Amino acid sequence: MYFRTESTYRQYMTTAIETGTSLCKTFVTAVLLTGNTNRAEAAILEGIASLDNPEDSAELLARTLDSLLLQDDAVGAVPSSLPPELQRVLWLPSRLRRCLVLRVLMAWPRERCAALLGLDAAEIDRAVGMAALQLANQ
After folding, report:
1. pLDDT tens across 33-61, in order?
2. Domain residues for 96?
């Protein structure tokens, strides 16, 4: 690939790095929500296929989450590539796991989590608290 100016090259590389980082974050989030690398990959591919602008990382995450929430979320083999702390998250019951991942790990407002998961905000708070207790006792 040829770039006319150094500025164009820098802009291209910055976009590539940001896209790679966003894709990695989306993949880890998808694995934690599904408990399965194959389903996470499939959801990301569906998300990418439905995008108008493939560089829009927020939209990719939203489309991936839409696809994930329609899937069965039984945990498969725990990916050994995840750090042990995140592997433990996969052993939580799905409702607690989803609430914890979105509210704590993704740092979403509880109202946004509640809307996405079809729960009320108080249920999100209770589920996150129960998830934290279960993780502390593991």
Report:
1. 888 888 888 888 888 787 776 566 677 77
2. 92-138
